[in-house]
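Hello again, I could really use a second opinion on something today. I owe you a coffee for this, so here goes:
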Amino acid sequence: MEILLSAENLVKEYSSRRFSRSKASVRALDHVSLTIQPGAKIAIVGSSGSGKSTLAACLACLERPTSGTIRFKNRELTRLSEKELRNIRPHIQLVFQDAATAFNPNFTVLEVLEEPWILQTKSNAEERRERAAELLVRVGLAPGILGRITTDLSGGQRQRLALARALALKPKILILDEALSALDYSVQAQIANLLLDLSDASFPLLERPAIVLITHELLMAARLADEIVVMQNGRIVENGPSQKLIGDPEHPATQALLANTSGFNSVFEKRPTL
């Protein structure tokens, strides 16, 4: 099968001067390699400081690796200029943990959703409003909230709005960096089911974004992803099919994550219910 995105031997180092007077560097990624196929569902799991969010930022072209390569459809991304990356970023969308920080607090829901189209495409106001309403329905929100200010929305509504905006430009890869962790379990389950619906096999493969879930919740990862990648200290220490890792974890880091699973499973429904 075609490889949509591949990362090979990624190393990301940060200067430790921001933390101390030492000239030493901190290695957040240590020779990480990963491949993503069209329509794939991959979870990158690890405890705080494992490097998973740094990997997400590199894959989304928000951070440049110190060394290694990232290829999107066989195009090398690490050597592109910022201007050239603008044409790539719409295809690789990143949703953060706190949606509120991603929105202008003075924007309405409509203004949040139409911003990507204003920047990237040619469309008139009527077309943008119609498409915005369709996106809201797709993520389980009512079109009637288009005129509301984003600060008036609940946490779950803001996270759905962030997901809708990420989908606005029909990305090939959707990366969610702890995008569910700040929500209560019932809302997590609702959005998790929404993600399953977005990747449902009944849709043509080319219309389904590959989903990369960044999380510290191993059980959530197993429910949403077909493949799990476990990270520790900037390295991939175990990876494989979800059910295998849950049923027979080999690395101590995986075993520890499994031992710390939350009550998410009790409210999660495997079958999407929107």
